[in-house]
Amino acid sequence: MGSAQLGSIIGFLKEKGFDAETIDGMLKKCKRLEGVERERASENWIYLSKIGINERKIPSVVSKCPKILALGLNEKLVPMVQCLATLGTKPGDVSMAITRFPHILSHSVEEKLCPLLAFFQSLGISEKQLGKLLLLNPRLISYSIESKLTQIVEFLSSLGLTQEGMIGKILVKHPFIMGYSVEKRLQPTSDFLKSVGLKELDIQRVAFHFPEVLCRDVKKILRTNFIYLRTSGFNDRQIATLVTGYPPILIKSIKNSIEPRIKFLREVMGRDLSDIVEYPEYFKHGLKKRLELRHRMLKQRNIDSGLREMLECNHGKFVLKFGIS
User: Fold this and answer.
1) pLDDT tens, 133-161?
2) Nearest one of 97, 175, 92, 100 to 133, comparing CA atoms
3) How far is CA 152 from the centre of its chain?
4) Mean of the pLDDT values across residues 30-35?
5) Cα–Cα distance measured from residue 100 to residue 142, given in angstroms and rounded to the nearest whole number
6) Residue 297: C-alpha distances to residues 83, 100, 139, 325 (Å)
7) 221 vs 302: CA distance, rounded Å
8) What is residue 69's DSSP assignment?
9) pLDDT for res 5
């Protein structure tokens, strides 16, 4: 490779607004870039714009994955984009996925994308859902089926989620679960849930309905929330009931969500913590739009009501139930 060729690609990158430090980093990241002809780099750059990537975002895309400028347009980029386009449900899905994870373009359709799609289809995920899954979390294409994705599936199976199609539904609901380590994150979280009193069926419910709970750090979040609930006056058995009834209680913000709702229950509504134990989903309702508003409406009319009766319905049914005009 001659210095003229290297100078040509450096000149092209400078024209596109990259400074010397960024260019140096890109050359270190992708050795092939040194030998790329200006014409190919320009052609690929234009193609990124043609498929809908915002002109202002292309430099960011290219700096994250400089290899894009070195790949054959018709051999690599076009086939991948065309394949992804068949998975998209609306215009802009593909360009958004590429902007989010540019490395998706550096992978092979035959060697990586096709086996990945086949793997997900074997879990009962439909073609439409596949698109949602991959375009929402395009980083999936970089994961190994054998050493990463299969481990996640085996972990979920070990929780007792063996009914056909069940694991596929979890992955579609929360694709980001596949980015976590079973050993370092998912298993410790599952073990913690057992330690606070959840039974096997309870943990299955958490995994199926609230998979995001399994993805959070035990030390930083789950245990911190557990301790806060204890210091607020709940005993361990009550906390187990709370977590079973509304698992996100362990990952909600203490300052912005849990604390103000407990304070409102005690100080404004004049209720006891046992009322929440009977209705753990109290914590899912908006403080101002539902809790404060409905409490005020009932108080003005001197109407007594349990939390579930007061909250577990839409506004129309609430008004009808309590005869509010």
Assistant:
1) 888 899 999 999 999 999 999 999 999 99
2) 175
3) 15
4) 90
5) 13
6) 55, 45, 48, 11
7) 40
8) G
9) 56
Cα(first)–Cα(last) distance of the chain, in Å? 81
Residue 1: per-residue pLDDT:
45
| Crossing angle for the helix pair 236-245 and 200-209, to the nearest 10 degrees | 40
Task: Tell me the C-alpha distance between 320 and 325, whole Å.
Answer: 8
Q: Quick check: pTM over 0.90?
A: no
Report H helices in the chain: 3-15, 20-29, 38-50, 58-64, 78-87, 93-100, 114-121, 127-136, 150-158, 166-173, 187-195, 200-209, 211-214, 223-231, 236-245, 259-263, 273-278, 293-300, 307-311, 315-321
**How does pLDDT run across 221-271, given as a tens digit for each residue?**
999 999 999 999 999 999 999 999 999 999 999 999 999 999 999 999 999
Residue type, 269: M
Radius of gyration of the chain from Cα atoms?
A: 26
pLDDT at position 4: 53
Residue whose entry in the numeric block shows the structure tokens 């380590």 = 181
CA 156, CA 94: separation in Å to the nearest integer?
A: 29
Q: Which amino acid is located at 283 in the chain?
A: F
